[in-house]
Every structure is written in C-alpha cells, then in structure tokens.
Amino acid sequence: MGIVPQKKYFKISEVSSLTGLESHVLRFWEGEFSAIRPKRTESGQRMYRRKDIDTILEIKRLLHDERYTIEGAKKMLGGKGKDKEAAPASTRDFLQGIVDELRLIRAMV
Pfam families under this entry (predicted)? Predict the structure, then answer.
C-alpha cells in the first residue's frame, strides 16, 4: 500500500485503489469478515476508516500471500490461529484429499 492520505474516511473506490482489490471483493469480504464494518452515509455509501484498510490489507496478505482459506484467515484475525497448526487449512485439506484417494486406490487392488 502506498501512502494513505490523512483523512478520516475513504470511499470504496479509494480503498480499492489503495489496496489493489476490486470493489466487489471488498463488498464480499464485508460479508465474510466481521472485522470489516464500514460506516454508511445517509445515501448508503460505504465509508471505510483507516482501521478497516489495515484489516483489509491483513486479510489480503493472509489469503493471497500466506494462502489461507477464508475460514483460516478468520481464525487468524480472531487470534485463534496463533499456532501454525491451524494454518493454512487449504494445505491440510489438500493432503487429506490425497490420503482419501490413496485409501480408495488401495481398496481397489
């Protein structure tokens, strides 16, 4: 993220350009992560705070860089994922899928 302007609230288009995320992704994440709660104007326009932008960037890091699932990112944001055993869930799921397939193959022979 570049330099964040010194202002209290940011429109969704500004957050989109600051974070490099499309506005539809930001709206989706609002529904998935309770930590992102932008204020609404009387006309219903979303107004994000700096705290929201920091949270969005952390979620982006967890999902895109660390390869967590949405559930794994929720746990990490909630402080439940302090140990590496819970992360990343996608790897654990992938390996479990391999084990299940190997069991099926073994049952066939």
Answer: MerR_1
The pTM of this model reads 0.68
**What domains are defined for the chain?**
10-108 (1.10.1660.10)
Task: Sort strands 39-40 and 10-11 into parallel, antiparallel or unpaired.
Answer: unpaired
pLDDT in tens, 40-89: 999 999 999 999 999 999 999 999 999 999 999 999 988 644 444 444 55
**59 phi and psi, to 5 degrees?**
-60, -45
CA distance 76 to 81: 4
* Residue carrying the six token digits 């350009």: 17
Q: How far from chain centre, in Å, is Cα 55?
A: 9
